[in-house]
Design goal:
The chain is of the alpha+beta class. It is about 40% helix and about 10% strand. The chain is built from 11 helices and 4 strands. Strands 1-2 form a two-stranded antiparallel sheet. β1 and β2 form a beta hairpin. The longest helix is centred in the last third of the chain and has 14 residues. The two termini are about 50 Å apart.
């Protein structure tokens, strides 16, 4: 027997996945359970902070809002719009002159542009570490060159902390030539991770005059991950024959574990330089 044309209603609360049950004889005993699940899902909405406005205020920026998908069942899809609504009867409206919303973090990194990324620069000074970290990540992924000075300021404040490393990683992706002095300074760092990022940052500045020095530094470098970054830099600056010309050691395609730290550089230029795909 197949039962159809029924409908569910009154979804008054969220509920994790469960199964419909079959009862025979109206005895309260479950005879069978459905092999498919049912769930009531709802995304959550959370602002960074409470906001209070004064009567007659000029337009006020909205506190950053995070929309989180339900953990048990997806309800947000590419086919549906998201709409933020002011409750009916509440005495304010949206500022229609502000027609572009800023998407932060991983969402912006997937759908945003460098122009939208520039709108994230003020968030680098946000009091919320969550907002600040998402802005740093998105700015790097979107290659927001104009963010270089703000990232530099944040780096100088936190360069001895984990946040400083995160900021430096984003900065080296922006191709901001005004940060080249910092990268040159970090080439002498005792931390190989910072040396690697400095090499990749200088490579993205795209100054061909750096090429001879990079070849010499490659010879002196003892860390395999930094050597890989030098290979990326040398190729990006014009030497794309698949070996490092003028030095004794060729470009070596190391085992996968040797590619992990230099992955971003090879992802940028790998297919064009050495004919590999790290996807």
């Amino acid at each position: 027997m197949t039962i159809s044309d029924l409908a569910f209603a009154d979804f008054t609360a969220t509920a994790p996945p469960t199964n419909l049950e079959l009862e025979l004889g109206d005895d309260g005993l479950v005879t069978a359970t459905d092999d498919q699940t049912i769930a009531v899902a709802a995304p959550t909405l959370a602002s960074i902070a409470d906001q209070t406005f004064l009567t007659g205020d000029s337009p006020v920026p909205v506190s950053p809002i995070t929309i989180t998908e339900d953990a048990t069942a997806a309800s947000i899809t590419a086919d549906t719009d998201l709409r933020l609504r002011i409750p009916a009867g509440f005495p304010m409206t949206w500022d229609l002159a502000d027609s572009v919303a800023t998407l932060a973090g991983s969402a912006l990194a997937k759908v945003g542009t460098a122009e939208q990324g520039r709108a994230l620069i003020p968030l680098l000074a946000d009091e919320s570490s969550q907002v600040r970290n998402r802005a740093i990540e998105a700015i790097g992924i979107l290659r927001v060159t104009d963010a270089g000075p703000a990232l530099r300021e944040l780096y100088e404040q936190h360069k001895r902390r984990a946040l400083g490393t995160r900021v430096l990683s984003a900065m080296t992706l922006t191709s901001d030539p005004s940060q080249a002095d910092l990268y040159r300074e970090l080439l002498g760092s005792t931390d190989p991770e910072r040396r690697r990022m400095a090499v990749e940052g200088l490579a993205r500045v795209s100054d061909p005059a750096l090429l001879p020095g990079f070849k010499k530094d490659f010879q002196r470098e003892g860390n395999a991950d930094v050597q890989l970054a030098y290979n990326f830099a040398i190729a990006l600056l014009g030497d794309r024959l698949g070996v490092v010309l003028g030095v004794d050691r060729p470009l070596v395609l190391a085992p996968r574990q040797g590619l992990q730290v230099g992955r971003q550089g090879l992802t940028d230029q790998g297919p064009q330089i050495v004919g590999i795909d790290l996807g």
